[in-house]
Amino acid sequence: MRRWILPTLFLAILIGAWQLAASSGALADLLKLESYAVASPLEIAESLWQSRSLLAENAWVTLREMLLGLGLSLVVGVLLAYAMHLSGVVRDTLNPLIVVSQTIPILAIAPILIIWLGFGIWPKAIVVLLICFFPVAVSTFAGLGTADPEATKMMRSLDASRLQILWRVETPTALPYFFTGARLAVVLAPIGAIFGEWVGSSSGLGHLILQDNGQLETARLFASVVILSAMALLLFALTALAQRRVVTWR
Amino acid sequence: MRQDTKMRAETEEFAGSIASPASAGGDGAAVSIRDLGHSYGELTTIERLDLELPAHGVLGLVGPSGCGKSTLLELIAGLREPSRGEVEVGGATAAKGRLAQCAFMPQRDLLLPWLSAIDNAGLALRNRGVRRGEARRRAAQLFDRFGLAGFERARPAELSGGMRQRVAFLRTLISGKPVLALDEPFASLDAITRGEMQQWLASALDADPRTVVLVTHDIEEALYLCDSVVVLSARPARTIIRLSAPAPRAADRDEAVTDPAFVTVREHAMQALRQGTK
Prior knowledge:
Chain A is mostly helical.
């Protein structure tokens, strides 16, 4: 219970303080802004309700980009991890390159993706992939390497082939590590989708945020942020649930 | 005592039913070690060793910690290649051939936590391509007779130390291999469970004879379970003495280990061990 009560209470206090500061005009004074540029939590809630169909429409676009990108990340991350685990040549070739791939500023190459792939869902999904495959690949690869060498000897002595050892010992050992990587990927996915939309899009929460920013629709901007955050939390919870269903021995 | 004879009758009954591949056969396999040496780089773990073990013989290896006992066991089991000399198991000298003849049981039970007890026991069958249902059916017959009935679907974490060890044994026996390489199988158990498990293994081996190489710290355990015991020196390992056990696998373990003849041999072994540690 404590796990839920404490953060919820703290968040409530923060929101309450924000509400007071915003509605009394103190926040606007402090930031030297007109009061319409500062949204209070109540105004954000009001905007969530009033713009619900617009927000839902755009959230659905962004959610699809995130899900497609995450799906690709899991597949690519896991395939890379297994390839590196099984082959020394692949490991020595790709391990440094995977790290290099994370040093590339995604914002810098996103425009090229738009040029190559157009304005649809694919460039966004690819940006999500570029950000999210990394934690999956790295932690799954690390997990595959933690299998007990004594268990491997035992299996060899019981006539197991390399693939049988991979499937019956190394893969289950790596599963909790894979889920750790997947949870990281899930919370990074909205960042990737928003990046992708900022570079070029005609819909999505990132697109809406850009518009609202230009028009000083502060309340609706925050409403988009709340929805993005809620979607990431939901995906995170689903991942944790899947982990509990699959990794039953811990 | 009565429980022991019951266990014995039960183990005799299951002996016929253990699924044995052609290689196990009835004749077993002899182990022969000639001029064996092993080193990891600069570090010499085994100096020079010659050992003969007839088919269905039970040999104990005792020695100080880190003397290369486990390395020796892995060499026999075909998990390693020697730096020098030859290991022959059932006529095979290549590592692959030895591996086919030997079932290796590591120090810890190493039951896979994601598999039920029965799926752990049937691992060797599954690795050979036997279907899951068939592997379970064959393992289940032995569960009843190993005092594990009702725990087929339990995860290893739900089993006691003694039960885990019995499942690990089952897993080793079901492989049907003629040679068992056991690395301190009871080291992790408390004294009472260890005694019970020793007696249990004794009856299991009498019912279903295999060639066994047993590595242990425990001289008493070695002298009770084995036909003969080799005392090894500190690293690099060499044979100090080979002793014959007075009454291997006697029906009553507690009686056997307090017998004056047993105590005399045990003192012999202790002396040899002290001598080798210096």
